[in-house]
């Protein structure tokens, strides 16, 4: 059981410098997942992501994009949006059809899943890179480079066959795809970055707290440092003793909250006696160059538990006993005065206890 306790004393100490993330590469990708159940039944799901922030959903029935942020349209005009929606919709119809058509040639067995990831990566100061990747059952199959499709090294003979036949399908399509990922995509992403500046460059301070739980090793404690609700994603967290980083620090995955902020847990197994003096350090761009430091404090000693919990119980029990004695003492005389006890018609206790004395 997790023994939850907030023992953190948050002290802001100088140290660490906030990094400027504006030069980090940014990736925009559209993900389409087609589940092909049988020859006549297909389900498509689409979404678009700016790094790890979802920007668009997709209604597979109407083919309309769902704009998840006010700035998700970028600087596209309504006309351009309609064209984009139509082309995305017709592509999503084409792709599964193509896999249905070739299911026997490519030895595909129903049900199966095909995933297409398409987009571009912007490296500031360098040319951007466009990509399209296609996966079958979660494994890379083919990818698009230099205006044509290439088999994935791990895709085997199926990948080579799919590649050959997809390249033969339509050369105009390949030209269009190339233009889409190398020309149109980077321009759209730049406009998204500009329109969404306020949300994308926001800084949200984390909340942090410490917990302790049982460790699989006997005599050890697991100290956990929880950091929650921060944005953007890069964060540095570690357990320290004084100024010394602790080697056994275990970092969990950075997990998303529904509001787009992030959560991380960083834990450390220590001998129970050595927990004192440890602290969890958090460095994040929202903290203005000052690390957040949470000091571990020993949970209350058994003696303290005794004083705080057991002593009042003992006192209460003592009081109850005393009251009971008093009540009994008070009641007894009334009871012994009661005449029926000496009633000769009823057998007295003495005769019952010692019938031999009669
Ligand atoms: C195809 O799969 C769908 C969904 O699983 C099912 O409802 C339908 O009956 C299947 N059709 C055939 C011909 O097997
Ligand atoms: C799939 O096959 C049908 C009928 O054979 C054909 O009309 C259609 O163009 C093919 N589609 C693709 C994407 O190959
Ligand atoms: C694509 O073209 C570039 C430049 O022409 C070349 O450096 C690169 O190797 C090519 N990639 C493939 C997979 O052929
Ligand atoms: C949208 O923004 C991009 C990047 O700033 C720019 O290159 C493009 O011309 C803009 N398009 C329109 C229609 O304004």
What does this structure look like?
With 358 residues, this protein is an alpha+beta fold. The chain folds into two domains: 2-200, Murine Class I Major Histocompatibility Complex, H2-DB, Chain A, domain 1; 207-295, Immunoglobulin-like (Sandwich). The chain contains six helices and 18 strands. It has helices at 78-101, 156-169, 171-195, 197-200, 302-337, 349-353, and strands at residues 10-14, 26-38, 41-50, 53-58, 65-67, 112-122, 129-136, 139-145, 148-151, 207-214, 220-230, 236-241, 244-245, 250-251, 255-256, 262-271, 278-283, 290-295. The strands form three sheets. Strands 5-4-3-2-6-7-8-9 form an eight-stranded antiparallel sheet, covered by helices on one side. β12 and β13 (244-245) form a beta hairpin. The site of one 2-acetamido-2-deoxy-beta-D-glucopyranose has 4 residues, from α1.
List the helices and strands and how they pair.
Elements: E1 10-14, E2 26-38, E3 41-50, E4 53-58, E5 65-67, H1 78-101, E6 112-122, E7 129-136, E8 139-145, E9 148-151, H2 156-169, H3 171-195, H4 197-200, E10 207-214, E11 220-230, E12 236-241, E13 244-245, E14 250-251, E15 255-256, E16 262-271, E17 278-283, E18 290-295, H5 302-337, H6 349-353
Antiparallel strand pairs: 1-18, 2-3, 2-6, 3-4, 4-5, 6-7, 7-8, 8-9, 10-11, 11-16, 12-13, 12-17, 14-16, 15-16, 17-18
The structure holds 2-acetamido-2-deoxy-beta-D-glucopyranose (4 copies).
Transmembrane segments: 301-324
Region (Disordered): 337-358
Signal peptide: 1-18
């Amino acid at each position: 059981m997790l023994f939850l306790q907030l023992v953190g004393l948050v002290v802001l100490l100088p140290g660490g410098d906030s990094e400027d993330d504006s030069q980090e590469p940014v990736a925009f990708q559209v993900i389409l997942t087609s589940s092909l159940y049988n020859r006549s039944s297909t389900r498509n799901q689409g979404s678009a992501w700016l790094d790890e922030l979802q920007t668009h959903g997709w209604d597979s029935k109407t083919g309309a994009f769902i704009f998840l942020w006010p700035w998700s349209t970028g600087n596209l005009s309504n006309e351009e949006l309609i064209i984009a929606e139509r082309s995305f919709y017709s592509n999503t119809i084409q792709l599964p059809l193509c896999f249905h058509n070739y299911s026997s040639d490519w030895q595909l067995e129903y049900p199966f899943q095909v995933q297409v990831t398409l987009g571009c990566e912007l490296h500031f100061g360098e040319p951007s890179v466009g990509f399209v990747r296609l996966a079958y059952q979660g494994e890379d199959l083919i990818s698009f480079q230099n205006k044509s499709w290439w088999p994935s090294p791990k895709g085997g003979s199926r990948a080579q066959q799919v590649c050959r036949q997809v390249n033969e399908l339509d050369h105009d399509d390949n030209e269009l795809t190339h233009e889409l990922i190398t020309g149109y995509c980077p321009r759209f992403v730049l406009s998204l970055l500009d329109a969404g500046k306020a949300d994308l460059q926001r800084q949200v301070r984390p909340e942090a707290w410490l917990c302790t739980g049982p460790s699989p090793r006997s005599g050890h404690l697991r100290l956990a440092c929880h950091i929650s609700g921060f944005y953007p994603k890069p964060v540095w967290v570690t357990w320290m003793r004084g100024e010394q980083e602790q080697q056994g620090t275990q970092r969990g995955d950075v997990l998303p909250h529904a509001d787009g902020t992030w959560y991380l847990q960083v834990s450390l197994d220590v001998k129970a006696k050595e927990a004192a003096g440890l602290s969890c350090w958090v460095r994040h761009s929202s903290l203005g160059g000052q690390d957040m430091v949470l000091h571990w404090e020993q949970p209350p000693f058994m003696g303290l538990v005794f004083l705080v919990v057991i002593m009042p119980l003992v006192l209460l029990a003592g009081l109850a006993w005393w009251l009971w004695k008093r009540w009994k003492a008070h009641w007894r005389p009334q009871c012994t005065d009661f005449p029926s006890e000496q009633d000769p018609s009823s057998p007295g206790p003495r005769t019952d206890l010692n019938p031999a004395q009669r």
